[in-house]
Here is the input.
Amino acid sequence: MKKIEIDTAGARSKILVGESWEKAGTFLPGTGVIIISDDNVFRLYGDKFPPFPVFCIKPGESSKKLEVIELLAERLLGAAIDRSGFILAIGGGVVCDVAGFLASVYMRGVRCAYVSTTLLSQVDASTGGKNGVNLGNAKNIIGTFLQPEFVVCDPSMLMTLPDEEYFSGLAELIKTAVIGDEKLFRLIEDHYGEVLSRDRELLELLISMAIEYKASVVSEDERETGLRRVLNFGHTFGHAIEMYKSAKHGFAVASGMELAVSYSFNRGYIDASEKERIIALLKRFDLLRFHDIPDDQLYQYIVHDKKKTGSEIYFVFTSGIGRAFAEKVPVSEIFDFYRQNRKDR
Ligand SMILES: NC(=O)c1ccc[n+]([C@@H]2O[C@H](COP(=O)([O-])OP(=O)(O)OC[C@H]3O[C@@H](n4cnc5c(N)ncnc54)[C@H](O)[C@@H]3O)[C@@H](O)[C@H]2O)c1
Here is the structure.
């Protein structure tokens, strides 16, 4: 088991990688706890949940909306949860984003923690303290920062994940390797078979390496005023592909990364061999998808991107495996690049 800490101005969060999720109950207060989960996770693991009331949401991205927050808040009120209450999320990125946002606004804030049940949420969504919901087509546009008190990442829960969900998470793991950890990238390359077979020991190592990198970034720049922007690598085009194609987050980000790597190459930031190495790994795990977002739709997604300021947007480039930086780029240049690189059949 590995314990990783995130230290920010306002809070400290501990992430327990390899801890048994069934121990989560021992870290909770004795009363006032509400568990938020989704129907799938509850069906698989509900019989071993800590003994507190459970509110389930519908699985999937469609639950990330204000209406769901309102319904859950009404139920918290109905259960007489006051400011001393505690919300435990048991689920993937959607459950953690919804529960974290709810915890930050209900009665102006109650305590919270996560048991993170997907690869994507273990390597990314449940660490860092960002939460939020979508507004129509605009991703994560309503949200806050709130560090969960603890996050349990138990790789044994990943054995029940459908393949599509597992590979979606793998894309975010590769993203972390590309932007911050060449050794992690090499481990994924060298252990292709064990990654496919979800080798528990290897997963524990890969997940803890990814979280260590993210924790170091978030501890330095919780509010994304600088360094943290690099975590958005692949996400400018990725979010647009996710919303337009209704694609799984990780696959959309993988295609967004392919575009970002090519863009980095076009600008002379990365050499051809590194570019090919990154794209080869994405292809090897079959993470890339076709995308053909029409100009007017792309415009809608980009203008609503939180990384946009005026007519420019912070775009994340890589200068080699393990290195990334954000640079302001005119939105018009992003459009031109996409027009020349969209992957329609
Ligand atoms: N807050 C952040 O920093 C951050 C970072 C990255 C992504 N995200 C968000 O995370 C979301 C995607 O998260 P996700 O990919 O975990 O999706 P998800 O939460 O929808 O989970 C995917 C599916 O897997 C099921 N599932 C969950 N755990 C399971 C398990 N152990 N076994 C079997 N099935 C299981 C769920 O019911 C769901 O159907 C997106 O909304 C994205 O915006 C947030």
